[in-house]
Amino acid sequence: MTTDAHSETPGTPLLSVRSIEKSFPGVRALSGVSFDAARGEVHALLGENGAGKSTLIKIVSGVFPPDRGEVLVDGKPVDLARPDDARRAGIATIYQELLLFPELTVAENIFMGHAPRAGLGRIDWRAMHEKTNALLASLEIHDLQADRVVGSLSVGNRQRVEILRALSQDARILIMDEPTAALTEYDVTRLFDIVRKLKARGVAVIYISHRLDEIFAIADRVTVLRDGAHVATKRVADTDAAELVQLMVGRRIESLFPKITVPIGKPVLEVKDLERRPLTRSVSLTVRAGEIVGLAGLVGSGRSELAQTIFGVTPADSGEIRIAGRKVDIRSPAQARSLGLAYVPEDRGTQGLVRPMSVRENFSLAALGKVAFGGFIDRGAERKLADDGVKRFAVKTSSLEQIAGKLSGGNQQKIVLGKWLANEPKLLILDEPTRGIDVGAKAEIHRLMGELAAQGLAILMISSELPEVLGMSDRVLVMREGRIVAEFSREEATQETIGAAMMGSHDNAEKAA
Amino acid sequence: MTTLTLAGTEADPRRRLKVLASQEALLAIAVIGLAIAVGLYNPRFLAARNLSDVLLGNAYIAVAAVGMSMVIVSGNIDISVGALIGVLATISGTLAVNGAPIVVAWLAALVAGVLVMALQGAIIAYLRIPAIVVTLGMLSILKGGLISVTGGKWITDLPDSFHLADIELFGVLPFPVFLMILVTILAALWMRYSASGRAIYAVGGNAEAARLCGISQPRTIVMVFALHGFFAGAAALLYATQLRVIQSTVPPNLELTIITASVVGGVSILGGVGTVIGSTLAAVLIAEIASALVFIDVSPYWIRAVQGVLILVTVIADILRRRRMAGA
Amino acid sequence: MSEIPLPQTAKRVVPWWLLRHETMLAVILLLALIVLGGLNSRFLTLDNLLNQGRLTTEVGLIALPMTFIIITGGIDLSVGSIVGLCAILLGYSWKNFGFPLPLAICFSLLVGAAAGLLNGIVITRVKVPPLIMTIATLALYRGLAEGISQARSVRGYPEWFYFIGQENLFGVPAQLWLLLIAIVVSAIVLDRTTFGRTLYAIGNNETAARFSGLPVDRVKLIIYTLSGLMAGLSACVLVSRVTTTRSDMGIGYELDVIAAVVLGGTSIFGGVGTIWGTVVGLAMIQLLKNGLALTGVKGDATIVVIGAVLILSTLVASSLQRRRDGV
Predict the structure, then answer these.
(1) Alpha helix locations (H) across B98-206?
(2) Going from the N-terminus, what domains does chain B have, and what CATH number goes with each?
(3) Which residue from A23, A378, B1, B24 puts its CA 20 to 30 A from B15's CA?
(4) Which residue, A81, A60, A74, is CA-closest to A17?
(5) Helix, strand or coil for residue B41?
(6) B301 by DSSP, 3-state: which?
(7) In angstroms, rounded to a whole number, what is the distance separating the alpha carbons of residues B79 and A218?
(8) Coil, strand or helix: which one is C264?
(9) B251 at the C interface (CB within 8 A)?
(10) Strand partners, C193
């Protein structure tokens, strides 16, 4: 399992990524990203969703090729056309959604595709178990048996199976994508033990995470990506959390946020002690008419889960929700809708838009009741509704019959937003309303939000962009690990105060009441 | 997001043993238990003659279920196999009656089975048409083709040497039973000890992960279907040679019995899990139930309803088991 | 990232409606009619065509809810077995329970709906995939039919019962009126109502449909129940036409039904399809059967053609769809 056999020029980084560029239709995912990792180094990649981390690791693991740039291992360029090529180059990747075979045993999962053979090409089960036990022993894992079925393991143990699989292939470069996203604290400790052991063996670990405390605990260097570009590479010892947050989310204010000050009305949404394990824990909040409440937090802090619990996608286990003062028990999105709630989800393509349907059909989807009489859709009313929406939101489309999935991201987002407004909701929950759309559309959505608030709509806005949160919100709530940990008024909120609360340095964050 | 509450869901080994250890053991107990229970009610059920008839007459279902199990483990389904068995039996019988060497008649069934199934596998894997559409279409092509070509005429006057099923090994072990056991053991060993056998589980369990392990999904699926065709050919030979005549029609609902045997045998209908030992035991159990109904004075017309309940219960239990395993 | 003005729906020389699947199918149907009519003078007669309509009613009644189901991305393979079960229960409850025939009819319709409801409940609650669930009930419902009937058929129904299956109303086979009404109602429901719109939304993006507050599970429950109910109705019409009940009634209906729906342009992957397409698909299949029979091809050979048509039309549809999505 040792890597000493491989020749190596002293001073050459084990892995070196040079000026990688990658575009997808309509999106520039990476523009000239470089970084390197030495033997025995843990190199963290940091950045918000959409910063280009996952595209980058997919290129390094051979899932798809870069448009420009190259990857070097031991100073030699490698051609990574297929995942197999990466494996042969000694690169192993552990994805967030673990790629295991739940019905097969630990040993088999580790050796799938390269099982030890005995005579006649048959799989040598005994050797496989012995090798598995040797691997387990080498990492001092004593509570995992080679013949356990993987589906019965905890997420932490499944992840260790993936790590063992990588080691069984003599991986010298291990890429871990958000390895702690689904782990308990205990499992995180154990994971770090393993990472340290790997480090000691000379394995280079590329560690992707949003959690700053982890980066300080485990990484040697950190590279920050933003909007597909390389922002900075720092030695962990030479930086601090505040600086990293700044690098990660503090983009220049690229458009003006036209916040209109409007009189704040009565509470529209009141949530008290809402529980839905694991990511909604005793959450209490209030949103008033005319108010925009920003909900900040790192990815995985439970913001979207909270929104979906309020909206009835994953109904709450306990707690209380009041809409306009009336206590309600929301069990489904349909019910939430009829109570005057609207939810523009985070993932436009899979949760918001019905891509193959027309602009007209998408616009009326959440407001079918408004254009139908006794269940019959009034085509004229529907067209008018869609037409009004297209005009109001300045959707650039050839016609109402245009297939919605073929529009640009900004126009798609306007449709998803517009379909809810057709329903005349009282409360609008926006989950990353401007992610992945261009500047013009972004400004337009911000302008609309201001107008809607002015008309008395209550808005709860989840956003990972601090300038957006700061620019749009009357009040900012910060979530971490499923709880609301801080609340700031518009005057109190700064990148520093919010950033600190997101990361969990309590010193300068005020505890929520 | 629901996979987060996993602290402390580590199944304790004893429970795991109970849940997963073995559908096979359960089935074996059921087979024996049912024999004893019915035997107590009506001792004639246990007569050697009856038990061997049950095995002899249904061995071909177990053989076909071996191939079906592979297909289902790979995450697919095949409902054309019953019709295919009818066609292959007729091909083989027709050749034998028309003077072809007996071995050629036998081989023809195997070869034709492999070809038809490999074709279906290729359409499913490379053209990405759902298995249900392809095999439903093929079911009707084979069924209609068989009747219109033969006009439903029975094949009689088969040469004596054609009757594989009459052979008794060592004077006691009838060939169909021997073949059933042999095929089951070989297939079980192959599925456990060969890389290509394990690939079936990989493709059915997690196609994306299999791809990243360097396993070709389309190639695995074509291979599985080709093998399934081979076993269908073997099953057709047993079916064709156990009676003096071949009916030249498609045995009604045969595919359902075969699917039931596979599913009840512990092959998860969502793919990725199951063994052929289970499916063979289940085939025996189903045949035993059919025979038992007669001996406990219940009309044999209820057999398919019993099958239906069996398959429904197993499928629902499988889904619930998976959900629990996923740690919801 | 830039907001490029999008290329608009290409300026086609051919009007859009001509390129629709249903239109092309109708043209093919017309050509087939002319060719078959030329080959055999008995084919293109009103009598023959009306009679074909009579024969296609039983499959047609089931194909309508099946269109709904396939549009949502589901499938129901148990329909043939429900026909068998309902037919048996119609005869059995009339003869053995002594139900008056109208009550027996209601009873068998009720059983059909209940059988469909069971499919729907397990599919939406336990989340068993529709294919698997309906294969299981394909076996179960047929098994119940066989067990209850004990291979005995029931005959000798009162004369009035044969009206729907054998008589004419205003010169048109009585059951054809039933089918026509069902077609019109289904087409309006699919095309004009919120229910129909929900079906398309589920088939195209179930999550987005759910997130938009559409009652996804309730709609699924309704369509599987409807499928069972229509299979029950189909059973009554069938019994009335052939004057007897047997447990093997409706065997293989799932093939004819699914073939008609898929041939009619409904995508087996969900999201796309119309009732008109299904109607043309039904007509194609029935006339193909009839035309081939009249030109001397034996009845069984026609199901070969249907099987091939099923596979080929799926192939064509899926390659068209892939090309469209590839844009």
Answers:
(1) 102-126, 131-150, 175-193, 195-205
(2) 12-325 (1.10.3470)
(3) B1
(4) A60
(5) helix
(6) helix
(7) 54
(8) coil
(9) no
(10) A376
Q: Contact, B274 vs B69, CB < 8 A? A: yes
Instruction: Identify the chains in contact with A, defined as 3+ C-beta pairs within 8 A.
Output: B, C
**Helix spans in C158-246 (H):** 163-166, 174-192, 194-204, 206-211, 216-242
Instruction: List chains touching B (3+ CB pairs under 8 A).
Output: A, C
Task: Sort A137 into a burial class: Cβ within 10 Å, 0-12 / 13-18 / 19+.
Answer: exposed
Q: Label residues B42-73 b or e (16+ Cβ within 10 Å = b).
A: eeebeeeeeeeebbbbbbbbbbbbbbbbbbbb
Q: Is the pLDDT of residue B106 over 60?
A: yes
The answer to whether residue A182 scores a pLDDT higher than 50 is: yes
Contacts with A27 from chain C: Cβ below 8 Å: 1
Q: How far is CA C111 from CA B283, C114, C118, C239, in A?
A: 31, 5, 10, 16
C314 has pLDDT over 70: yes
φ/ψ region of B320 (left if φ > 0, alpha if ψ in -120 to 50, else beta) reads alpha
Structure tokens at B189: 């060993």
> Exposed/middle/buried for A11, CB within 10 Å: 0-12, 13-18, 19+?
exposed
**Closest CA relative to residue C8, chosen from A395, A415, A399:** A399
Length of chain A: 513
pLDDT tens by residue, A453-478:
988 999 999 988 788 888 889 999 99
pLDDT band at residue B119 under the 50/70/90 scheme: very high
Contact B144 C151 (CB under 8 A): no
Query: Is A408's CB within 8 Å of C8's CB?
Result: no
C4 with A408: Cβ contact below 8 A: yes
Sheet holding A76-78, edge to edge: A27-37, A15-24, A68-73, A76-78
Within 13 Å, how many C-alpha atoms sit on residue A58's CB side?
14
Nearest CB to C318: which of B79, B129, B309? Answer: B129
How far apart are alpha carbons C317 and B328 in whole angstroms? 38
d(CA C208, CA C66): 23
What domains are there in chain C, each with its CATH number?
20-29+46-312 (1.10.3470.10)
Q: Is the dihedral of CA A301, A307, A310, A315 positive or negative?
A: negative
How far apart CA A484 and CA A296 sit, in angstroms, is 9
Minimal C-alpha gap between B116 and chain A (Å): 29
Strand partners, A22: A30
Q: How far does the CA of residue B155 sit from the closest CA of chain A (Å)? A: 43
CA-based nearest residue to A485, from A282, A322, A211: A282
Residue type at B251 in one-letter notation: P
Task: Provide the shortest C-alpha distance from residue C174 to chain B (in Å).
Answer: 30
Question: Could C147 and B302 be called an inter-chain contact, meaning their C-beta atoms sit closer than 8 Å?
Answer: yes
Cross-chain Cβ contact C9/A398 below 8 Å: yes
- Locate the DSSP E strands across chain C: 168-169, 172-173
Give the closest-approach CA distance of B263 to chain C in angstroms: 10
Chains A–C, number of C-beta pairs less than 8 Å apart: 105
Q: Which residues of B touch C309 (CB under 8 A)?
A: 137
B136 at the C interface (CB within 8 A)? yes
Q: Return d(Cα A94, Cα B212) in angstroms, integer.
A: 11
The residues that bridge with A294 in the sheet, in sequence order, are A461, A476
Q: Using a CB-CB distance cutoff of 8 angstroms, which residues of chain B are in contact with residue C138?
A: 256
Of B123, B139, B312, nearest to C307 by CB-CB distance is B139
Mutate to test the interface with A, among C6, C193, C200, C212 (most CBs of A within 10 A): C212
8 A C-beta contact, residue C72 and residue C269? no
